[in-house]
From TrEMBL:
Pyridoxamine 5'-phosphate oxidase Alr4036 family FMN-binding domain: residues covered: 9-129
Cited SUPFAM superfamilies: FMN-binding split barrel
Protein's name in the database: Pyridoxamine 5'-phosphate oxidase Alr4036 family FMN-binding domain-containing protein
Gene Ontology molecular-function annotations: FMN binding
Domain of life: Eukaryota
């Protein structure tokens, strides 16, 4: 059976084109602020917000080049991209962020694309895709992951997607995933930061020795994707006169996206 690319809401192409335009002018405009809820804090009886910058890793199965380590199909029978409307970021599965998402998956993203003067905000639910072999005492809650709902097509290999994203990381970022648990105090850990690996190659087949192979296996086990299923997208255009604002809202009853113009 031939593959058919899913029908995507108009905000997806809107975002992809604006990201491309911004990166042509400033390659650093690829990060956005991700807000989560923290229910395990001594600071308050109520959940407290936690926010940090994360790097946009594209949409699920969005590809920039061939030969990137994935066997997933790239195009459908009519040469359309086989992507979904789900955003992707990465995390360490042992991190507080992953624990927060396991408890409360609702997130919001704010992304200022300065080169073209556009602000995107995304509201949705975030799901952690950990390694099949991952286990950690720091995160005792399971990571629910509705794989079929989030996939761009049937029989999509999520493990291929996870490994592809790992291979795309810089050598320095890959090495960060075999460090002690993020947020651990150095005193409690008891080691020396200068003894940690600085870089790691793409895969165990490129490891220089047994120690590096072990480090790569550990890093890949800790490496996780976060897939964000948006339910509302808000775009403000401050680069035009008059300024404009558009909101897309997903209607669960009709299973369709609704688009409307708002006052900026």
């Amino acid at each position: 059976m031939s593959l058919v690319a899913p029908s995507l809401p108009s905000w997806v192409d809107n975002l992809r084109s604006k990201v491309t335009d911004n990166l042509k002018q400033n390659k650093d405009l690829i990060s956005y602020a991700l807000a989560t809820h923290d229910t395990a804090t001594p600071h308050s009886d109520a959940p407290v917000p936690r926010v940090r910058y994360v790097v946009h890793r594209g949409f699920v199965n969005e590809r920039r080049k061939d030969g990137d380590g994935s066997n997933n199909a790239v195009k459908d029978h009519s040469d359309k991209d086989l992507i979904s409307d789900k955003l992707v970021i990465t995390t360490d599965a042992r991190s507080p962020k992953a624990r927060q998402l396991a408890s409360t998956p609702t997130v919001e993203i704010a992304w200022w694309l300065a080169a073209t003067q556009h602000q995107f905000r995304f509201l949705g639910r975030a799901y952690v895709l950990a390694s099949p072999s991952f286990s950690s005492a720091t995160n005792t809650k399971p990571f629910p992951f509705p794989s079929e709902h989030l996939a761009p097509y049937g029989d999509f290999s999520w493990e291929d997607e996870r490994i592809r994203q790992f291979r795309k990381m810089s050598p320095e970022l890959r090495a960060s995933f075999c460090r002690p648990v993020p947020g651990t105090t150095v005193a409690a850990w008891g080691g020396k930061l200068e003894d940690l690996p600085v870089t790691l190659p793409e895969g165990v087949d490129k490891a220089e020795n047994d120690e590096q192979k072990k480090q790569l296996e550990q890093a890949l086990e800790n490496f996780a994707l976060v897939v964000i299923d948006c339910t509302e997208v808000d775009l403000v255009d401050l680069g035009s006169q008059p300024n404009t604002r558009t909101r897309w809202t997903f209607d669960t009853a009709s299973n369709e996206w609704k688009e409307e113009e708002l006052v900026p």
